[in-house]
Amino acid sequence: MEGSPLFRPPAGRGLSARRRAARRRRNTLFGAIVVVALVAVWLGPIHGAPIFNHTKAEATGEPGGGGTPTSPGTTVLPPGKNPIKHIVFLIKENRTFNHYFGAYGHGAVGATEGGTLVCTGSPKHCEPGPTYKLTPAVDQQPHDITHGFSSGLYSIDGGRMDGYNIIGSGEDMSGYSIMARGPCDASKGTSGEGCIPNYYAYADRFVLADHFFTSMYGPTFPEHLYTIAAQSDGIVDNKSTVDHPGSYCTDPTEFTPHFPLAGPGALTPAQLKEIMGYEDNVTSAIPDMLLKIAHFWKDIRTCINIKVLADELQQHHISWKYYAEEDIWQNAMQAIDHVWNGPMRSHVQDPTHFIDDIKAGKMPAVSWLVPPEPYNEHPGSNVSVCAGENWTVQHINAVMHSKYWKSTAIVVVWDDFGGFYDPVKPPHFDVMGLGPRTPALIISPYTMHGDNPEGGSVDHTPYEFSSVLAFIEKTFGLPALTHRDKQASPLAGAFDFAHPDFDPLVLDYRTNCPYGSDLLPE
To answer: I need a surface site. Which of 121, 155, 229, 241 has the fewest CB within 10 A?
Structure first.
């Protein structure tokens, strides 16, 4: 977009990458007999990533909507033939791709400055403003930045991606920032030194997906519902009360607005099309357009009964666990009535059990891994990205040290845009989104090789959270839950089963974080 240059710096390999290539050739001989015969029927062509269907999106919502991502020609291995036997879906908090990886290069789409809006009148009408040079990010963002449904709409501004300066009070520019590779001294906290060297190391070796979008405009609660259900029951906001014991299904005082998308009283196709028109023009009249959208919302309890992927896993006797602390914002399973108040609740466990289960030889086939709040990288409250990165490394190292590494795929995402700038226009599938890009790392012995410094690749295939569910479904032969995961690309540009590299990438902890020394090995 004008004033916000996108760049794809030239790619290159160093000596270490060439050495990795030689090692991959040796590993290829090891795995060729098993893998080569299967490649032709898994995910279609290895090269040439599938793209979204760019036909006009139907103005419908979830679960039966249209205009969702597609992967033309994609096929899958028969159940049981895929070398991936374990999938870990690790979900962190509130960052955009450009905030974390905008300076990565090697073909990844990023920006060094961002567009803004100037809004005047009553109601306010917004026009393009001056560009703003992105500033170096800090390790400890001093405060949260607004990142709700309306903030996502304003930031996207109908695809112009220039409204990040008007969200919240309209005076907070801290979201116009970008992390560095490092090395750096994160102990300086809010004074600077925002870098993510270990996340860059994963990108160097494995797959960095630079067109992975959040499933909706925000915020945390409904985004996490998408990670387990490929929908949010139309929910568009977080819970209404926070001063009572419990959360979601254990707190009867909590309500949240939603679009009624199914059942009696569901919005009509004409109404959905009308809402999408308001969303595309949301900054033409502030707050009038948002009020027109909100007119269609209805309040419901934060204890709902939608089908989740765990239901299919349970029915097909595929082991699974949802590792998350109880009573935190991010525990989406606590909001699913039949899970939380039924026998499946035993599968919802504290995240400390994840490493314990690996050590005990009981790693589930499918794991959702939601970090505890000090390590989830949520901006504000003195949360350290450095400490959060250490937590991620700790858990990925645990997999790589284990017997499970050779059969595992790990997908690391961040749950919503957090108020941080991103320049890439998300597809407008339905009244829920998509929202701005999230960082996404796909880590496995079977990831695509490319020109990143350690032989990894940048995957430009468009994805959203439903794509991870689609990957799980295709791997284990399960039906889709909604239209979103039915047509989502199942991470089709991320894997190359013909050329596995079984060598783990065990990373060192960063020792200069403001806290988190309890994560370090004794």
So the answer is: 121
Dihedral over Cα of 417, 420, 424, 425: its sign: positive
Q: What is the pLDDT of residue 192?
A: 78
Query: Can you give the pLDDT at residue 495?
Result: 96
pTM: 0.89
| Burial of residue 449 (number of CB atoms within 10 Å: 0-12, 13-18, 19+) | buried
Residue with tokens 């040290």: 401
Q: Which residues contact 239 (CB under 8 A, 6 or more apart)?
A: 221, 247, 248, 251, 254, 255, 256, 302, 329
DSSP letter assigned to residue 437: B
Question: What φ, ψ does residue 433 adopt, rounded to 5°?
Answer: 165, -160
In Å, what is the CA distance from 333 to each residue of 301, 345, 348, 359, 365? 14, 8, 7, 25, 18
The DSSP call for residue 301 is: E
Q: Give yes or no for a contact between 233 and 249, defined as CB atoms under 8 angstroms apart.
A: no
d(CA 174, CA 143): 9
- pLDDT, position 38: 40
Cα–Cα nearest to 415, from 483, 368, 353: 368
pLDDT of residue 37: 39
Q: In Å, how far from its chain's centre is CA 257?
A: 23
Given this model, what pLDDT does residue 186 score? Answer: 87
**Helix-then-strand count for the chain, H and E:** 13, 18
Amino acid at 85: K
Dihedral angle sign, alpha carbons of residues 30, 33, 34, 35: positive
- 3-state SS, residue 385: helix
Whole-number Å distance between alpha carbons of 421 and 164: 6
Query: Partners of 256 in the beta sheet?
Result: 300
Beta-bridge partners for 7: 110
Closest CA to 156 of 377, 330, 416: 416
DSSP, res 434: -
Distance CA 221, CA 149 (A): 11
Q: Which residue has the tokens 């308001």?
A: 278
What pLDDT is stored for residue 480 in this prediction?
Answer: 98
Query: What pLDDT score was predicted for residue 211?
Result: 98
CB 201 within 8 A of CB 274: no
**Dihedral-angle region of residue 372 (phi above 0 means left; psi in -120 to 50 means alpha; beta otherwise):** beta
pLDDT beneath 50: ranges in the chain: 1-15, 18-19, 22, 25-76, 522
What is the SS3 assignment for 348?
Answer: strand
What is the pLDDT at residue 173?
Answer: 93
Q: What's the token pair of residue 322? A: 């949802």
Whole-number pLDDT of residue 78 = 59
pLDDT for the residue 77: 53
Residue 228 CB: number of other CB atoms within 10 A? 26
Q: Which helix (H) or strand (E) covers residue 278, if one does?
A: helix 269-280
Amino acid, res. 115: G
Query: In this structure, are residues 463 and 226 in contact, taking their beta carbons and an 8 Å threshold?
Result: no
Contact 430, 276 (CB under 8 A): yes
pLDDT of residue 18: 43
Q: Quick one: pLDDT at residue 74?
A: 35
